Amino acid sequence: MRLHPYHLVDPSPWPIFASLGAFVTTVGAVAWFHGYIGGSDILLFGFLIILYSMWTWWRDVIREATFEGHHTNAVQAGLRMGMLLFIVSEVMFFVAFFWAFFHSSLAPTVEIGAVWPPKGIVPLNPWEVPFLNTVILLTSGASVTWAHHAILAGNRNQGIQALVVTVILAAIFTGFQVMEYMEAPFSISDGIYGSTFYMATGFHGFHVFIGTVFLFVCLIRLAQKHFSKLHHIGFETAAMYWHFVDVVWLFLFVSIYVWGGA
């Protein structure tokens, strides 16, 4: 009989397996960058190892939470705190990009003409696709909150509808972002402006993609009745991550698109 509410996980091969995949991926990426024969194959193999590790590891976590009852209130509190700390680390990740942007834009050097945007750069109109994407992403934040309240109310069908809306809006956002990149009059190699713009917005787009997959998995789990009023920590963490993505985009839109392109 267990005398504590904590989950002591069973021995698992997936951490070391995922580490092996990360190592193989890194070796393959370096080999590919330097033009070695077979570098791209090694990179692909390592990436497939990581994907397999993700699938099996998260499958085990879902089994532990949903079918074995290991995720007690104490465990859920720990998972919630872990997600918050992860989001704090992600905030600092984006702080680095904002720091680079404001360092270059607030005091532009003579090398870029002492003006911002640099001479020769035609910035994107913030009130076209960027503003539309802002509306789309904020609407998706509202719909994921709708899904959360539906789960808390025990209304699974309404929760599914809200998550479907969220995933569709996220896909539309990504599609517009890709279209914007294809039509942008500058590239990542166009000096400090292109570097800071594409690094900041590109990594945000990558986070949107990860969040979309996260919410899509939650949609499948909700359809399979994995979540209840009192036990839906998987969805909670996904919603927290999605709201973080929303807030970062607001800062990107105001600082890089509106102020930085003025």
Automatic annotation (TrEMBL):
It holds the Pfam family COX3. The keyword Transmembrane helix applies. Residues 2-261 form the Heme-copper oxidase subunit III family profile domain. Keywords: Membrane, Mitochondrion, Translocase, Transmembrane, Transmembrane helix. It is a multi-pass membrane protein. The keyword Iron-sulfur does not apply. GO terms for biological process: mitochondrial electron transport, cytochrome c to oxygen. The chain crosses the membrane at residues 12-36, 42-58, 79-102, 129-147, 159-178, 198-220, 241-260. It is found in: Membrane. Coiled coil: none annotated. One of its GO terms (molecular function) is cytochrome-c oxidase activity. InterPro entries: Cyt_c/ubiquinol_Oxase_su3, Cyt_c_oxase_su3_dom, Cyt_c_oxidase-like_su3, Cyt_c_oxidase_su3-like_sf, Cyt_c_oxidase_su3_a-hlx. Belongs to the cytochrome c oxidase subunit 3 family. Component of the cytochrome c oxidase, the last enzyme in the mitochondrial electron transport chain which drives oxidative phosphorylation. The respiratory chain contains 3 multisubunit complexes succinate dehydrogenase (complex II, CII), ubiquinol-cytochrome c oxidoreductase (cytochrome b-c1 complex, complex III, CIII) and cytochrome c oxidase (complex IV, CIV), that cooperate to transfer electrons derived from NADH and succinate to molecular oxygen, creating an electrochemical gradient over the inner membrane that drives transmembrane transport and the ATP synthase. This is Cytochrome c oxidase subunit 3. It comes from Symbiochloris sp. SG-2018. The gene is cox3.
